[in-house]
Structure prediction request, 224 residues.
Amino acid sequence: MSKVFLRSLLFTGLCAFTLSLAQPAQAIVILSNLPAAGSNTGTALGLDINGNVRIKAVGLTVGVNDLSFTSMSGLFSNRDNVVRSVTGGIFSDVGGDPGGQLVAFNPASVAAGAVAVQETLTAVSAFTLMAGTSYWFVLEGPAVANGLIWNRLAANFPPTPSAEVSYDGYRFSIDGGTNWSVSGLYNGVEIEASRIVDLPEPGTLALFGLGLLGLGIAGRRARA
Prediction:
């Protein structure tokens, strides 16, 4: 076996190894009670005719590994004759309730007259869910009186967590998040994230390649 062939083989293997590590992690469902049938009722979001600002949140605690947030989906209805937007974001945990916003969601539009349709929200920027940390996924509605609803499930059962997280329940506020109460109304939700894989630094990969090359050449000489 020639030195040129050996070097080529080792270099090709190293490139394949590096590319395999660099592949993006697959998004997985970390908390969900979907797909399931939605009911005709749920949690109203945004301003109501009495001036209340209604907000709903679902919480989870990340396990031993960091996760990269991908998206949050929910079942929504819109009783108005105009499109309404669902907003919100990921919030910190303060004493078991939502605290401050850590990252905002891009608004999701709910069509006029929509009934229990699934819409997906993404973050305005990349966000890492840190291991051992609790988060609240908060949904809000328009700042005008509206008929936007985050539907509960017909069977009203809580979401199931994956092995990567634990489920912390729902919270509801009617004063824009100043005060929160525990809610037993289980809105349709699905949260996805991807596992974070630590890649070797470029210098480490270079040393790895040189080591393999040296071992290959040494082995050839020893057999000569």
